[in-house]
Input
Amino acid sequence: MAREQLYINNTYIPLSTTINAALTKSITDIEDPSKRKSTFSKTTKIPLSKELKGVINAIYDVNGVDNGFDITVKADLLYLVDGEPILSGYCQIKTLTTKGLRNKDREVEVVMFGEIANIYRNMGENYIEDLDLSRWNHPFDKDVQADSWDTQVWDNDAGAFIPFALGQGYVYPLIDYGYSTDLDDFTIYQIPTAIYLKEYIDAIFAYTGFTYTSSFFNSTYFKSLIIPSSPETLSLTDAEIEAAQFSANTPIFTSTGTTTSNNLPLGNTYSTPDTIIFTNEISDPSGLYNNGNGKYTVTNSNVAGLHNINALIEIKATLTPSLSVPVRTTSNIDGSFSIWLNGVQVMATPFYLTVDDYAGPLTIGARSTTPSPTTYPDSDYPEGGSVFYSDVSISLVALLVPRLGQNTPNRYLLNLNGINLAVGDEIEIKWKARYRGLNNQNNHMFETAFNVGVPGNATIDVSVAAFYNNYVNTYTQEGNILDIQKAIPRNIKQKDFFNSVLKMFNLWMDTDPDNSQNYIIEPRENFLTGDTLDIQCKLDKDRGLKTTPMGKTNVSDYEFSYKQDKDYLNEKYETQWQRVYGDRQVINNNQFTQKVEKTKIIFSPTPLSAPANKERVLSTIVGPEGLGNPRTISHNIRILYYGGLKTGEPWNHINFLTGWPYIPNPTVRTQYPFAGHFDDPYNPTEDINFGLVKEVYYDDNIQPITVTNNNLVNKYYSNMIQEYTDKGSKIGTAWFNIHPSDFKTWDFRKLYWFENAYWRLQKIYNYNPTSSDFTKCDFLFLTDVPKFSSDGYLVLGSDDPEVPGGLGGGGGDFTEDRPAKGTKAAYQPDQNNTGKRGVQVEGKENFIATDSFYVDINGDRNQVYGGAENIKIHGDNNIIEAGVRDVVLLNSNGLTIEESNVTYINGIKVDSFTDHHSGFYKIEAPDTVTVEENKQMTNWNRLEIDGTLIIDGELILK
Output
């Protein structure tokens, strides 16, 4: 009798009776290649020993076996027969049953799962954002972006840059997300990072505690695959923004240590600029503001970047005469508050204070009565009104206010918006001032009623003031450390992500027979080996071999598809073709079934496009708005092939200089980092779409576009589908005498020899390792079908509209249609091609070059070529040649314009000039009105010819 051993959660469970395990293991469901199976058992009954009871209590925290428990909780399991590990995985406890009062009469019903299921168990319901990719946190700047293309990447673990290698860390591909207005200028904030797919796979295995062996995962092809992020994913959190901000109040002057200044200088010289220290920190989570010296300092890269610097200051001034005599004054104080960067003034707000009629009466020091002032006219005192007091016993204290009509007359708000601060930069608030006395009294501050000058002192007071900043960044700023976790798409479960990778490349996975913690993962054609095993002696000859033709498999069609998404080009494609971009259908021609086998993945397709007459082709994820001008859009997770640097038109890679103002600092690049479903937009050898698209969204007028049939279905599925559908292929069902050691070693990679043929193992049914009965098995007999090989390049626009796929044999039809030739990137509806964004177009099939400006078209099939500017067309089928400027075509069709500064009406060229005062055209033609008459119709653009009156392009009368 076979000896059984069972361990649950590393606890040995004694077995008083055999558990009669019925184990099934399968590599794939024959009619659904997207389903992966694991070894599993039917419900198995295990006697409830005290050891098992202890395990159950530990797992479920119950006091007795009759209490309820959570059946979704899983426990590690190892099942051995005669010392052979039959099943290593986990078990799920389903029910507890009672036959009697004694424990030995009680049983636990479980389902056992094998090792392949283990990795999915450990993934659980966790998301890919739970993976730790922090090794690739890196400095965010223009040079680091450019280095990632082919030179080096930052390894946070090593604390240094390491040489560029595909599949390693991150890369910054150029993708059109709708941020760039002309697709020639891209700021560093519009080129978000992408993480290599291999980093995700490695992180998933690290997360689940397993390893893998895979030539495919280590291939150049797989290492070129990336998961791009969107600029939206790089936005700062509220906590990151708050960490860069501060606010403080309660000011004092550095020079006096009080809220009141020293005496101001008299005359033309200002006081030395003096720092205002705001002594009370209201908020400063990162300790960036120093309330001892009044400086805000950027101490680390995470708070560098764009800031708005603000200061709110209320000011009062005191004028004190040196003599206790009745005096009057029209003296004034002027000065400025300023913002200083690293000891240099970058902006200033002036202030001007004077005694003014609007200020009310002068304030007198402490006394029992308030005299009535006498106001003298402004004509006597041109600097402002004056007030005279008869009380001479108390020094005069005057409250001076601004004369500039501010809402709060003595309040000033300093704003310096968009200053780009780097690490080490310091910001402080300073002031300076002076006072001017009465010019007719030798600059004395006061004078008596008898016009005798009286000297005095002037001070200012800022008892109310605040200093604070706003961190303007919405994205990680240049110079900061980029948290790579932000580049991970959100709400994507690890198991869904991993399964989609398996489906894309038809990857087959099995447990390493020498290491249950390691998985062997390869595309089907590489997974299957030529190793052979003769099992003829184990065949039950009495039952014989039953064969079923695979050509009769119960599938009519195979469909492969990315997930639909709502960005403009994906929706445009689906509307026009009623298909998902890059999908594939293989017809099996089985007339006895309507079943369609569908393979879908979580990733969405990414169309390639380029502006008209542009060679630089970009993966494009934009949304239409208004007349079709692209905008940014939230989108589903994508996967692309990083093709490296490609040649194209020069483009500007822009960062911004530190300091103020915020100045762009472009670097002209002659190559661009390409990523798409092709490895090259014009001469691809790889395509990670399932099949050829119906049309492309870029031109072939600069260089020919070729396509490749080396796509996912042809490369990874075609051989299998042919084998399954070929009339010579068949399933063989037979019964075998399987020993426990056979169950372990019979894997799905080998060839098995019996009945004078080689077969592939597909499934073992309900194997009981303690029974001597024969076990039912399915094997696949493979015919020698042609293997797929790429045909090289298939030129668009060929006379032959079909692509055979390089295949023959089998029941599947792998024929594809060639894409439509050179369809341009139409961001606008009705097939308009407005390469330059922001032009106005009403009509269909119009073409406007990307470097044309200020174009307004109302009509169909007009063409405006490169460098044209200030073009207005009302008509159809007109051509504006490159470089032409200032052209108006009204009610004109079929014209080719090669000269600038011309106007055509009804197809007739008219001599025109623009009157810069009225904006009218003078028309040298019969029945025109005079220029003078035109000028009387101010603000109208009036054109009249042959009795036809057109105003602002509208036909008024004829």
In short: The chain has twelve helices and 67 strands. Residues 63-67, 356-408, 912-958 have pLDDT under 50 and may be disordered.
